[in-house]
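yo

u said u wanted the structure for the complex thing, so here. seqs first:
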Amino acid sequence: MHQLAAKLFPISRSITGQGFRDSLVILDNELGNIMKFHEIKSGEAVFDWIVPDEWNVKDAYIITPDGRKICDFKQNNLHLLGYSQPIHAKLSLDELSKHLYSLPNKPDAVPYVTSYYKKRWGFCISQNERKTLKDGIYEVFIDSTHDKNGVLNYADFIIPASNNTNDEILISTYLCHPSMANNELSGPVVATHLAKWLRERERERVKLKYNYRFVFIPETIGSIIYLSRNLTHLQKHVKAGFNLSCVGDDLAYSLIHTPNANTLADKAAMHVLKDKPNFKEYDFLDSGSDERQYCSPLINLPVCGICRSKYGEYESYHTSNDDLNFISQKGLEGSLNAMCEIIKTLEINAVYKNTVFCEPNLGKRGLYPTLSTTTNDKSTYYYRKFLALCDGKRDCIDIANRLNIKAYELENVVQKLLENGLISDEI
Amino acid sequence: MHQLAAKLFPISRSITGQGFRDSLVILDNELGNIMKFHEIKSGEAVFDWIVPDEWNVKDAYIITPDGRKICDFKQNNLHLLGYSQPIHAKLSLDELSKHLYSLPNKPDAVPYVTSYYKKRWGFCISQNERKTLKDGIYEVFIDSTHDKNGVLNYADFIIPASNNTNDEILISTYLCHPSMANNELSGPVVATHLAKWLRERERERVKLKYNYRFVFIPETIGSIIYLSRNLTHLQKHVKAGFNLSCVGDDLAYSLIHTPNANTLADKAAMHVLKDKPNFKEYDFLDSGSDERQYCSPLINLPVCGICRSKYGEYESYHTSNDDLNFISQKGLEGSLNAMCEIIKTLEINAVYKNTVFCEPNLGKRGLYPTLSTTTNDKSTYYYRKFLALCDGKRDCIDIANRLNIKAYELENVVQKLLENGLISDEI
Amino acid sequence: MHQLAAKLFPISRSITGQGFRDSLVILDNELGNIMKFHEIKSGEAVFDWIVPDEWNVKDAYIITPDGRKICDFKQNNLHLLGYSQPIHAKLSLDELSKHLYSLPNKPDAVPYVTSYYKKRWGFCISQNERKTLKDGIYEVFIDSTHDKNGVLNYADFIIPASNNTNDEILISTYLCHPSMANNELSGPVVATHLAKWLRERERERVKLKYNYRFVFIPETIGSIIYLSRNLTHLQKHVKAGFNLSCVGDDLAYSLIHTPNANTLADKAAMHVLKDKPNFKEYDFLDSGSDERQYCSPLINLPVCGICRSKYGEYESYHTSNDDLNFISQKGLEGSLNAMCEIIKTLEINAVYKNTVFCEPNLGKRGLYPTLSTTTNDKSTYYYRKFLALCDGKRDCIDIANRLNIKAYELENVVQKLLENGLISDEI
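structre next:
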């Protein structure tokens, strides 16, 4: 996964443009070419928004009075203010300064700044470098285009359920950030490998109870477009969803709840994440990524945000320090495993009910010792206790929470009880 | 407010009689003569009670064996047992003693004692003075009348809503205590100034969403009478109510909850008071004033008790030490401000719902920066977060509690979002 | 009660057989012969189970190589593995060892072990004695019978309500254990004395609101049989039930909740037990006695488990150390008193509603002082507060919990308010 991130890292991406398209293709190749690509024309209205013109950049830099090239887009695409207008001009340092963005409290970092919806041009520079700039005439050059006849791109695909259900689990992530690693190559990379894991299970004939919808979009405008085009379907069929963002470090596990923290997505994610190291639970008010759109009042989809260190909570967030060293294979794997556990939890989860009055005779079925002893046999404990709680109302997550284990660890118990006809999902 | 209390202080009041009427007139003059005066005849049945005969006192005192006048009603009306029968007699100290009331554990205080519903006569005296009384013949003189053809008086008025609503907020207070300051001149004084503040807002053309019903009654029998005459109307229209008592000191803020602590009155009062210094929350079981009647099971109005130091919880309660020094202008103002905040909370409170799918584009409306930065702009924060929580179910208090600010501080946010058509109260 | 336990102690009991029948007769004699005896034939199917063959034992022992008789059933019936097959054979120590049961971590105790549903023979022995056994040939002798034409016995009786109600309280206990005292002679002994207490009240013409159903069964198979034969009736009429087990020591009070901890049984038991010394609250997952059957999902009766030290939680559990010294008259009485309090709580418990608008005039009924004072009169406090909370929704337990007293302590208050027509149970 880290190699995939490294491959994507240098590409200049924004919410529109060639870099976004190139990045989608790299991910699709990793997936075995299952993505469906979509586009929407610049200028089209989506809910309260207008799709911005497609932005592409050939080059951008500043020439200092002493002839040095600085803020070179080709060296680090973060140097260019996102969606900068083209310019070729000579300016005094004072005039230039109005177009420079730096972070006094993070002096070594180049900040990530954009201006999608208001025409601006500018460069991002570290505070340390900015302080070295001397008076004189600076040449600024930005060779960018804003194409009114362009498009905004995104992609999705579905890994289908084994049955005829329309129920879906939504996995959404975004790919519109330039050269930063955790935010946001980690999300697309983990989502891609999660899809690969699901397809692997398909090949191993593990049954899938849900359709899994994967969505790769530019942040905010992308989810707004996606919702505007798929709202009825999503509101009808999505049973739980997760927005993956900042899932590449190994410092914490974070869950951003839906507004009422009461959906199946919250329940399954809590069940899995609550025992992870450095787990942090965030209120919906702390949301800052596409879960804001998915959970907005009139949309109201059951979509949580999943992070390691949450966006905005780590030092290098939205700067050049969020690089390939900040994320790690171990961090990415931790996120992938957590998502696999969440999916296994959703897959096992169901409501069952006893078929037999009173406790059944487990001993004659080899599920309980025939000799009484004073010690509890843990291997048979869960048969008895699952049956005790299995009342046609509690689902497997409820029962697992009460038993203080993970729902997916009950897979064998559920399987054996079903085989023996002791429980049924016909409530 | 303290001056108004001082003007009322010397008047001899009881649940009936001229002193109560005189006190109402003083408050009405302060209000600009908007009170409606009501009376009910002595002997009339109200629910489980009978309106007592009207009691008036011309004079009352004791002459000691050595000729000194003590327990002089004209010096301090607390000396006379409330509703004392008339008497003019000579008695031994032993016989007199059966009619003297004092507090051994508060030896300097004259206690406040009444016997409304059983015929008694008596004097209240400090324990210190009582101990100085020597054997001998005492002359007792009480020139009081109990008029079977009298009346019990009370007053109310309504400050009307700006719209055609019938919804009411009830402010109730009582005025039946003789010369004590916190309990109970503070309640009528604060209620009077709260009404003045509301009328001031009327003049400033601030819209009122509710009708405000102010009630000035004798305690207990007064609220029982008021309810017996207005029950259907009150049960239909009162959305929240507050009984003001002991609101003149500056030592604490107290809320006495309704029986289930779940009405709009509880919610609005908690929202405002919870962050006040020395806030104390009391169960309905601790109620001791007219909220007992308003919240009794078959009445079941949403009426909380509001106090500073709660009745019964402070040392000078129901004694001559509850005087004009125990209350203060600062204390009265703190109560007035809290009530104004509660009213502003009720006025702003409503349930709104987004009109737009997904987050709206706040930037184009000047409600959000057009340049992305890594810092949260607090001035725009509340627009976004209010919209995020504004789901047609949460009211403004719910949202403000979640945002950890006061609902009335959201006034500008709500106003701007309404102006921009981004929220609507048509759920 | 301790004497009754001592009388029952030496009898060899199992889930079937003469010892169980003899024990029932002893209890029935104590009760004045009110039990109804029932039997079910061996081999009959009950829900998922088959009634086992009736087991009886004439003798059982081992002769050591040096001619000593050990593991003598007649000295201590725990020495024989429950439901052992008959055998008369000579064996090496190695071969014998496969049939010996001991507890290495409790070396002085003879364990209690059974094998009801798989054919085995064996002896239980203390680890200390086992270690003294030397190589050589051992003679084992078990003279037991397993009668296919036998029966399983149990008994029940009802102490009827004073009115025509069908509502029942279920008291269940079990009697299938051989010579152990707490588990389980304490349950039958306390249940017997609880029934005697109820009959005493009957004689004193105390009205009973409920029918009290007492059930004496063998554990597990007994409750399964009882439920299979009475399920419709029990599901329709049982309002609360309690399984009594391990109620003879004086170390703790334990409550094993129903699965959702929300039935009248949980509520009444919590109300009484929560203030007992060393009270411990257990989740239904900790259940291990007949409440497992009563609360199993398709049965779903409101039956809690009541213990002093819970089964499995005390050192001597299921060993020869659970003897007559472990239980005490004081312990048994504590349990009996707690059960009496629970029954008094259930009997007093009802939902009442005020009949009068506002507070009634308690003074004219002698339920409130006619003279105001600054002290709360506790004797009248409960009249006022009961009325304040008596809203047609809260029951007496709710009100008592709020008032921080016991519901049965409100008996006089409820009585006086009913007599005065101030409350009514016609909601």
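Chain C touches chain A through 37 residues (CB under 8 Å). DSSP finds twelve helices and 19 strands in chain C.
cya
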